[in-house]
Amino acid sequence: MPEIELYLLITLMIVGALVAVHTRYLISAVISLAVVGMALAVAFLYMQAPDIAITQIVVEVLALVILIIAVSIGKEVVDIKGKWETLTIGVTVLFVVIFAIFAYRALADLPPFGSPLMTVSQRYVEEGLKQTGSANLVTSILLDFRAYDTLGEATILFTAILGAFAVLRNIGRKAK
Amino acid sequence: MKNGMTLIVRVIARFVSPMIMVFGIYIILHGHLSPGGGFPGGVIIASAFVLLTLSFGKEIAYQKLKESTASVMESAGALIFLILATLGIVFGGWFFLNFLPKGEPFRLISAGFIPLCNIGIGLKVGGGIFAVFLTLILFRLLEKGEGD
Question: In degrees, to the nearest 5, what angle opens at C-alpha A140 toward C-alphas B40 and A113?
Fold first, then answer.
C-alpha cells in the first residue's frame, strides 16, 4: 500500500495534465506540463530512485526550455472550438470502461506495491558489486549486465538526432 | 533573442555556467560510485551551453561551440562506446566483456571499463542534445528567392 504522499503527488500530476489540456494559452499548457514532470521527479526521489530522479529533472528542464522557445516563436494561436455531442461522450465512456476492465484484469496478477518478485534481480543485487566492481548498482546493471539495452538506447538517440538534423537543415532546402 | 538578455542575466550566467559544467563532469566521472552516469551528466553539460545560448544570444554561443563540433562530439562518443564493446571480443571473450581489471571498489578508478563507457555516453548525449538545440535555434524558413 503506497503512502499518502505518493497519492498527493499523483493527484498533482493528474491536475497538471488536466490544466494543460484545458487551458487557453499554449504557454500555460507548457508550464502545466512541467508541473507533471517535476512531480514525477519528486515521486521517483520519494521511491528511492535518485538515478532516475536526476535524469528526469534534467531532461524536464531542458524540454521545458525548448518548448517555451517553440511556443514563443510561433505567433499563430489556434483556437479549437467544438461541442460535446452525445455520440462522442458515449464512445469515450465506452472506451474508458473497456480500458478499466482490461486494466483491472491485467493488474490483478501484479505483486503488491513495494514488494517485487526479485527472481533475477536478487542475483544482480547479490553479485553486482563482486562481478563488476561498480559501487553504484544501477550503473553496473546499465553498463555491464544489460549493456545491450544501453547500446540500443544510444542507437535510438543517435537516429533521432540524425532525423532532427535532416528535417531542420538550412542547407539545400528549397524556398517555399 | 538576437542580442541575448539583460546585464544581470549575463553576469549570473557567466558565474553559474562553469559550475554547471563542472557538476556535469563530476556526475559523469562518478557514475559508478554515486547516482548519475553518462546520460544525466551529458544533459547537464548541454544545459550549461543552453544557458549560455539563451543569455548571450546565439551568435556568441555559436562561436564557443559550433554545431558541427557538437555533432563530431556525439559521433565520437558513440564510437568510443562501440569500440569499448568490441574490444571485449579482441581480449578473448564476448561483446561487452568488462576486460579491464576491476580494481578496488569505491575508488574513482575501479569497475573496469564502466567509467570509460560513461565518458563515451556523456560525450554522445551532451553533444547530440546541444546540436539539436542549436539546429532548432538556427532554423528559419527561407523566404521566396532566398537561398536554394
Answer: 80
